[in-house]
Amino acid sequence: MAPTDVQHTLGSYRRATVVGVGVIGISWTGLFLARGLEVTVNDPRPEAEHEVRTGLDQLLPALADLGLPTGGLTDRLRFEADLATAVAEADVVQENGPERLELKQELWALIEQAAPAHALLATSTSGIPASDIARSLRQPERLVVGHPFNPPHLVPLVEIVPGEQTSAETVERARAFYAALGKRPQVLRREVPGFVANRLQSALFRECVHLVAEGVVTEAELDDIVTSSIGLRWAVAGPFRTFHLGGGPGGLPHFIAHLGKGMEARWRDLGNPTFDEPTVTLLTEQARQDFGDRTVADLAAERDQAQIALMRALDGLPG
Amino acid sequence: MAPTDVQHTLGSYRRATVVGVGVIGISWTGLFLARGLEVTVNDPRPEAEHEVRTGLDQLLPALADLGLPTGGLTDRLRFEADLATAVAEADVVQENGPERLELKQELWALIEQAAPAHALLATSTSGIPASDIARSLRQPERLVVGHPFNPPHLVPLVEIVPGEQTSAETVERARAFYAALGKRPQVLRREVPGFVANRLQSALFRECVHLVAEGVVTEAELDDIVTSSIGLRWAVAGPFRTFHLGGGPGGLPHFIAHLGKGMEARWRDLGNPTFDEPTVTLLTEQARQDFGDRTVADLAAERDQAQIALMRALDGLPG
Predict the structure, then answer these.
(1) Which of A46, A104, B47, B161 is most buried when burial is the number of CB atoms within 10 A of its CB?
(2) Beta pairing partners, B78
(3) Packed helices A219-227 and A197-213: angle between N→C axes, nearest 10 degrees
(4) Of A208, A232, A296, the CB nearest to B249
(5) Residues of B in contact with A247 (CB under 8 A)
(6) CA-CA distance, A230 to B303, in Å (whole number)?
(7) How far is CA A89 from CA A14, A93, A266, B258, B271, in A?
(8) How far apart are the CA of A183 and the nearest CA of chain B, in angstroms?
(9) Is the pLDDT of residue B5 over 80?
């Protein structure tokens, strides 16, 4: 994509500040750079710059596979340890600090004071409501949750979660910004702990832990069951559409009318595990058996490559 | 695939009998035919033959997309209303009758008497344990659950669920048969109601219903969240692998040690909906808004096309 295209697509966004560069912050940084933005990174840890540069090197193959430019990205990257200076010229601030309310309130009070009045202010938090963080702000209408599904340079979803006081304008700007980045933003209608994707992930994982703890399947067997059935389904059609298409010509209403009671009975039968000592030992041992001889980085690269192949296949379809 | 290849791959299986031809039975019939088997269909309903022939016509595009031969399939198809006659020469019997224990016990007692001693005996049941059905058999070691994820011609998974008395030989034969058909069989280590894939699907769907009932998202929004995040992930890496890769270099053990308590708290916060009147009304209305102007058959064809594209993309990857 040529720079002029990027500026057209991203409109008025030219300078992004990424606050906090753990895994999520590094991934945002890579995506922002690949989409043509100038990026200022702020992180108080002295090792942050090294981690970002190393992390970006690791992202490059995936960015290239996604069809994004990867040459000279770091020409537009700078590091600024002073938060007020780092955000002073930002068109957008994406914060990825530790998940502690008081810390985020402090960060955002500082950012609000130092950032331009036009800057879009978004937090990547996966668990703290914007309503709570914004209590430290003079203009709480400016802050919104822009929660990516990890890693943000790769997974399309960004959950936009407005706080009680977030303005409709802020929400709309956030949606347009993430869409221009090539993401798939989704605005939640209510703040709910964990937002949507992580809640759904937790709901499924609870039953996964139960079935492994009960000895019905191993972790590897369960993973294989998921990738060869519901995972493949849910990559192309969500749960409601799936049941709509599984209900015969009458669709979801027919499905609920005829199978709703059976589904309720199934729900009552689902497991309720805890991470007690025997369960943790079992899960840990099986994970070491399955993955022990390969690094997480290698496995993740393999997984990401497969996922990009899927995304390309879907992009090539009509509609 | 040339006939000799098929016979080589499927070994001694040449004649399959499909008992009961609802949606699942028709799909098995199409797959068996496309894989070169001679198929005898048994179903007491007078409209069964018409439904099978119509249904097969609708399957052909998907079978072709899967790279399977689709010419002259019905040359190897016959209909036999008498069950004993239908199974008399079968190498494999795949039963897809109504989900009623007494009926399945009657069917299988008859099949056991009439089928050759070497025939593989499999039931597609999604909910009745082989242990219960086999109480009507003289040789309960011969019966096994071969539960496909709908539709079997398309979704790779087949859950093989041995009953208490199913022999290891029967399990191994079933695994080899489904693998030779191009499916991805998975043997469960214990009988559990709903088996694995449907239990996981139910667990996720419970939270889906909760989030829509609570007004956090609509059905369409939730579906979009799933396809753009966890669905895409779970198509290439199951839940355990996903959390292993989300736990940093320490993998799943690190993840559980550091985030297990938070996950347990999330589990306690998950919803517990029922299909009460307001919920059913809401779900029905939203489904009609989302899908009302298109037929289930059209939507399903579109979904299946997308899924085949994904399967092809994954097949093209190393490993």
Answers:
(1) B161
(2) B40
(3) 130
(4) A296
(5) 296
(6) 13
(7) 10, 10, 55, 37, 43
(8) 9
(9) no
pLDDT-derived band of residue B89, with 50, 70 and 90 as boundaries?
very high
What per-residue confidence (pLDDT) applies to A318? 63
pLDDT tens readout for residues A8-17: 468 889 999 9
How close does chain A come to B135, measured CA to CA in Å? 22
Say whether pLDDT at B1 is over 90.
Answer: no
Q: Which residue of A has its CA nearest to B234?
A: A231
B114, B148 contact by CB (below 8 A):
no
- CA-nearest residue to B219 within chain A is A240
- What is the complex's ipTM, to 2 decimals? 0.95
Residue among B241, B261, B269, B270 with most chain A CBs within 10 A, to mutate? B241
DSSP character at residue A149: P
* Tokens 């706080």 -> residue: A163
Q: Do A275 and B283 touch (CB under 8 A)?
A: no
Question: Is residue A148 reached through a cis peptide bond, with omega within 30 degrees of 0 on the bond before it?
Answer: no
Ordered DSSP codes for B66-127: TT---TTGGGGEEE-SSHHHHHTT-SEEEE---S-HHHHHHHHHHHHHHS-TT-EEEE--SS
